[in-house]
Amino acid sequence: MPVRETDVHQLTHQSANYHLDVSLDTTTACWYVLDDRSVLLWGANSARVELATDSGLSAYMDRLAREPANALKTLRGGWGLAFADGNRNRLLLAVDRAARSSVCFSPNASGFAFGLTARDVGAMRDGGGAIRSQALFDYLYSHVISAPETVFADVERLQPGEFLEFDGESVTRNYYWQPTYGSAEASSHFFPAREEMMTLLERAVRREVGPGKTAAFLSGGTDSSTIAGMLTKVTNQPAETYSIGFDAPGFDEMEYARIAARHFHTNQNEYYVTPDDLVTSIPEVARAYDQPFGNSSALPAFFCARLAATDGVTKMLGGDGGDEIFGGNTRYVKQRMFDAYRHMPRWLDRTVVESLLVRPTLTARIPLISKVRSYVEQARVPMPDRMRTYNLVERLGAEAIFTEAFLAQVDTAAPAHGDAAWYAQCGHPAIVNKMLQYDWKYTLADNDLPKVVGTCNMVGVRVGFPMLDEDLVEFANALPASWKVKGVQLRPFFKSALAGFLPRKIIRKKKHGFGLPFGLWLRKHAGLQQLAFGSLESFRDRGVVRREFIDNFINTRLQEHAGYYGELVWTMIMLEQWLQAYAPHFNSK
Q1: 337 and 248 inside one domain
Q2: Do residue 281 and residue 306 come from a single domain?
Q3: Domain containing 577: what range?
Q4: How much is the pTM?
Q5: Confidence bin at 257 (pLDDT 50/70/90)
């Protein structure tokens, strides 16, 4: 049987009904061929073991042909898969449950193209892939371009747990897996469940270790500290840990990273990012992504991964996913409180509360009542629209930011429609679980995972996410919602289980992460100003944003609140740097 396992750079498959091209760059992949059927798999070591024998390969191909959803559920970790079935003239594409390994595609007149990046697939199309104005609006609105869309016209990507089938003429998309949540609220099994969680965590870390030198990101938060401690435990030697700091008030969390390092006796490695680092690395990081990416914590992640790479680390473990399965984001408490108001009796809602609080003339001069009024006004907005009330584009107004010509090309309501459609997929009644499913896509798959994977790829380091282990995720999703958020307490169950494992200061600390003091530095650092304002000068000539808006932002807004308004400046800079590299002549006019 001709089974090939190799570094696949370019694969061509000719079928009776279509021509298939795939670009995998230099990614190590396995290509298994059996008669007129082939499986291309990248990223899943456990799956490769299953396919390494004649009988295993033949049986798995049969399952993919007959029941693709069930066959795909057996794969673990971060992977992408392509199954070309010459017997049925059918192509199947799939991505892992969290879309850690991006799969982009484009059906066109000459066949069907797919690859790991939107840019590669766009390049395989006639004309090289035109830039979508709608994608640029979505990016500036959300800081990322959320799947299934990409920045290129006619190029899409798979969403978490999704697969597609192409029969030579049409594409059918479906999910083989989506998060499902338990409904029980009883706490009688709380203590046995804590032991089970710790066992699953240890097993998840063990699965991610090696080969080569494995280390861990360490921000000093609950999740990264847990992974670092477990890495020390499963290897029976001090883990190599890497932390990033900032010499800026309110941003440096190195103290907590050091607490965790001392507690677990890790070999701690530290790097302090400076404004000069941003000047030299912003263009490099912006151009490393296949489409515009505006998560500012990508810069700290890059320096952390680069430091590890210089030490010979071949794989980094991150704590990403813990918040999104155990309930660790602060907005879960806030939105749960807003939701409590919406469940008040209607007669009280209408005749007592709102008549007293929503009238500005009665409340504007009373600070405490004004805060309650603000709470009521937000609570009246249904989810997920309520989360967009904090969005900077919403607050400033699209008409004040974008040119008329650009707005004529886009649907400003598109991000809201996408949010609502995904949010509605969760059938569980608890708002906490609905938000967890929402964040599984928008926070993890679209944002945090590409941040870590992309920056690690830049320095040639692989990355693993033990918190996304399939067994651990299923366990966490089955937990009662009250174990994830209870009153104003975030993830009470998770913290209780770790009480004897983590230092008390880390369990009690407020969530922070790798926040970047960009706005603060921008006001003081001449080199950063030159890069930022130069990028904005170039960007305002592209016909996307009003020239007077950028002038006002530079001269007024940043002086008022550099941290708050610096967020939008960052996204525009990263977009302009990306456009200079890959679409220098783009203009929306």
Answers
A1: no
A2: yes
A3: 518-582
A4: 0.90
A5: very high
**Would you give the DSSP letter of residue 111?**
E
Sign of CA dihedral 217, 218, 219, 221: positive
Longest dimension (CA), the chain: 81
Which residues, at least 6 apart from 120, have a Cβ–Cβ distance to it below 8 Å?
Answer: 23, 25, 104, 290
* 528-542 pLDDT per residue, tens: 999 999 999 999 999
At residue 483, what is the residue type?
Answer: W
- Res 514 pLDDT > 60: no
Q: Hey, what amino acid is at 164?
A: L
Distance CA 306, CA 237 (A): 23
- Which amino acid is present at 143? H
Distances (CA, A) of 222 to 198, 310, 339, 453, 508: 14, 26, 27, 21, 9
Query: Angle of helix 222-235 relative to helix 254-264, nearest 10 degrees?
Result: 20
Separation between Cα atoms, residue 485 and residue 324, nearest integer Å? 12
What is the number of structural domains in the chain?
Answer: 4
- For residues 151 and 105, is the Cβ–Cβ distance under 8 A? no
Q: Which tens digits make up the pLDDT trace of 342-396? A: 666 655 554 455 555 555 555 555 555 556 666 667 777 888 888 888 889 999 9
| Amino acid (1-letter code) at residue 555 | N
Q: 557 with 523: CB under 8 angstroms?
A: no
Q: Phi first, then psi: what are they for 76, rounded to 5°?
A: -115, 155
Neighbouring CB atoms inside 10 A of 567's CB total: 16
CA dihedral 306, 444, 131, 14 (to 10 degrees): 90
DSSP-derived secondary structure letter, 150: -
Mean pLDDT of 386-411: 93
Q: Judge if 313 and 246 occupy the same domain.
A: yes
User: How is residue 402 annotated by DSSP?
Assistant: B
CATH number of the domain where residue 247 is located: 3.40.50.620
H helices of 209-316, in order, are: 222-235, 254-264, 275-288, 298-310
Which helix H or strand E contains 107, and what residues bound it?
Answer: strand 104-108
Q: Do residues 317 and 233 touch, judged by C-beta distance below 8 A?
A: no
Average per-residue pLDDT in the chain?
Answer: 86
SS3 content of the chain, % helix, strand, coil (to 5): 50, 15, 35
* DSSP secondary structure, 456-512, as one string: HHHTT-EEE-GGG-HHHHHHHHTS-GGGTEETTEE-HHHHHHTTTTS-HHHHHSPP-
Burial of 234 (0-12, 13-18, 19+ CB in 10 A): buried
3-class secondary structure, 384: coil
Residues 284 and 385 in one domain: no
Q: End of a domain among 508, 543, 561?
A: 508
Contacts 24+ apart (CB under 8 A), 492-498: 493/190, 493/193, 493/194, 493/197, 493/326, 494/197, 494/222, 494/322, 494/326, 494/327, 494/328, 495/222, 496/190, 496/194, 497/193, 497/194, 497/195, 497/197, 497/198, 498/198, 498/222, 498/226
